[in-house]
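User: I'll paste a sequence; please echo it back and then give the predicted structure.

Assistant: Echoing your sequence first, then the prediction.
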Amino acid sequence: MTSGPRAVPMNETPDLYGAYPRLDESQLAELNSLGQRRTTSGGEVLYQAGESADDFIVVLDGTVAVVQDVADEERVIAVHGPLRFLGEMGMLTGQPVFLTARAQEPGEVLVVPIDQLKDLVPRDPPLADLILRAFLVRRSLQLTLGAGFAIIGSRFSADTRRLRDFAARNRLPHQWIDLETDTEAERLLRELGIERDETPVVIWRGEVLRNPDNTRLATAVGLRRTAPVQSVCDLIVVGAGPAGLAAAVYGASEGLATVVLDAVATGGQAGTSSRIENYLGFPAGLSGAELADRAEIQAKRFGAEITVPATAVALEARDGHHVVLLENETRISGRAVLIASGIRYRQLDLPGLNAFSSGSVYYAATEVEANLCRNDPVVVVGGGNSAGQAAVFLAQHAAEVLLVVRSNELGQDMSRYLADRIEQTGRIHILTHSELCEVHGERALEEVVVQDLKTGERRAAPATALFVFIGGVPHVSWLHGRIDLDDRGFVLTGSQLGGGRQLLETSRRGVFAVGDVRSGSGRRVAAAVGDGAFAIRMVHEHLHLAHTR
C-alpha cells in the first residue's frame, strides 16, 4: 500500500443493485476474526489497478475512492464509507484488479487475507454470498461504464472487432474508443505517438499494446496464467461451457487433478446469454455470465486449473496416456479426457453481409453489445431460446427490435414462457415464416430486407445492428478423425457405438463427451451441467479399471 496525491473527499456513492452493500455488526464481527485492523493515511493507495489484490478490505473510518486511470486521466467509479467493503471479481478468480482504491482522508480499515475468505463459505454462507453477489454486480457495472483497459480502433477493423469480442466474452471491463465517431480518439493517438495505421491498440497501466493477439491481451490483463505444470493430470476438460465447468467442479471436488482448457472464454455459448430463466433453483433467472463466473470460482476453490485462451488443435496418445496438443505446441497429458468443446454459432450466409461483419453483425447479446446499439433499431434472426433471450434483453436498450423467425409460430422451437414474454413486449415486432434476404448500408449497416416465405412479399426495415442465432455446428475440427462422429459431426457416445461403452464414453477408451458437442444431447444448460457432473462417475470407473489392469 502506497501513498498518492490527496484529493478533496467526495460523498459516498449510493448502493446500486446490491453492488455496494453495508455490513451489519454481526457480519463485521465475523470478518474481524479473520483479519486485522490498521490505520490509513490520506491519499494512500490500498490496491493498484493491474496488480493482484491479496487482501479483502472493509472501510471502518473515513472514505475510500475507487478510480479508473486511462491515459493519465482519472475517473471516480465509486466512493465507499464505513462498513462497506472494497474489491472486485478478480480477487476471487485470481485476476489482477482493474481499478485503484485510494483513501480520501486518514481513517481505519479491516484487512482480511483473501485466502481467509474461503473459510466464510462453511462458516457464514449468507455473508459469503453477499460478497460474491456484490462482486458480480460490480463487474456488470464496470462493463457498462467501460471501467478497465481501453481499446482504440475503428469499428470497420476486423482486429478491433476481435479484441472487443474477446474482452466481451471474458467479461473483461474495457472501454472501446471508436476512431470513426469518438472526437477524443485522434487526440489520444497523438499524445501516445501512435499512427492510425498502427491501430487497434490496447492501453493498460500506461502500456500500449499494438494490435495484440488474444493470448497477449489475456496475459497483459492477468487473465491467462502459465500452462499447467503437472506432468500427467487425471482429467483434461476441453471446453469451459456449463458441461465443462460442471465436470471441473465435480472432478476437482472429488480429488481428481483437473485441467480445463478453452479457446475463448469460460461460459461457452451460455455465457453470452443475457438471462436464463428456466434454470433450476433460480426463480428470478440469472445471466450466463453470472453462471459462468460462479462456476469458475467454485471450480478453482476446489483446485481445478483453468487456462483461457488455450486452443486445442489435436488429440494424441503417448506412453499410455491421452495427450491434448495446444495451438502454442504445448502438450498436456491426462489419464482421461472430457470433450466439452460445444458448438460454434452458425453464421448467416447472405450476400454482402461480410462487408458489415466487423461493426454491425453479432452472435452474442450481452451488456457490451447492448451498449453499442442503445436507442437504435436492431434485428434479431432466429427462432430458438438464444434468439428469444436476446430479443427480450435488447428491447430494454434498443429503440425497437425486429425478430425474424423462419418457423410458422414463435413457440415452435422456443420455450413457451419465452415466446409469451416476447409477444407481450411492446418494442419487439415479430415476423414469422420470414427470412433475411438483403442488407444495405454505406460502411455500416443501415437497412435489412425481409422476405415472407409464404407470400414472397419483401419489406425493408431500418437496422444498425444484426444479431444472428440460427443454431450451431459442433466444434470438433481439433479431433481430426480420432473420434467417431454422427452424420452431422456430433460426437457419438455409449450405446450409439455398441461394444460395451459407458454412457458418455466415445469410440476411444477414456475419452468422454458431454454437452452440446455430444450426439443426442438435450441442448439446454441444465442438461449440459448434468452431463458434466455425471461424466465424473464414469471417469472414476475408467481410472479404477486402468489402475487394476
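The mean pLDDT is 92. The longest helix spans residues 525-548.
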